[in-house]
Amino acid sequence: MSRSFASSQELFEAVANLMTRLETGGHGQAATELREGQRCLNGLTDGWALFLEAIERVEATHAARFPRDEQDMLEVIRKAVKRAVYGRRG
Predict the structure, then answer these.
(1) Tens digit of pLDDT for each residue in 3-27?
(2) Structural domains of the chain, count
C-alpha cells in the first residue's frame, strides 16, 4: 500500500480510525499503546520519535494478529511518522 497524508490532520484522523477499528476488532491493548504514543506528540521531534517507537512496538508485538488492512494502515502510518522524525532520509 503506497499512500501518504496531505496533512497532519489527515494522519491523525487515520490514526484515530485505526485505533477505533483495532478496539472493535478485539485489539484494545494495541489501540491503547498507539493512543499513549500519540499523547507524546508535543510539536517537537522527540514527541514524534516516541510516537514512532509506540507504532513500532505495536507492529512487533501485536500486528501479526491484525487483519491485513489494519496491518497495511499501521505500516502507512509508521512510514509517515518516520518521515516526520527523520525527514526524507527516514
Answers:
(1) 689 998 999 999 999 999 999 999 9
(2) 1
Question: Is 19 inside a domain boundary?
Answer: no
Residue 37 covered by a domain: yes
Quick one: cell of 72? 497495511
Q: Report which of 11, 9, 32 is spatially closest to residue 20, judged by C-alpha positions.
A: 32
Tens digit of each residue's pLDDT (9 = 90 or more) over 66-83: 999 999 999 999 999 999
> What is the DSSP track for 3-51?
---SSHHHHHHHHHHHHHHHHHTT-HHHHHHHHHHHTT--SSHHHHHHH
Task: Read off the pTM.
Answer: 0.91
| Distance (Å, whole) CA 77 – CA 65 | 18
Q: Is residue 6 part of a domain?
A: no
Contact between residue 33 and residue 58 where contact means Cβ atoms under 8 Å apart:
yes
Domain with 36, as residue range(s), is: 28-89
Structural domain contains residue 60: yes
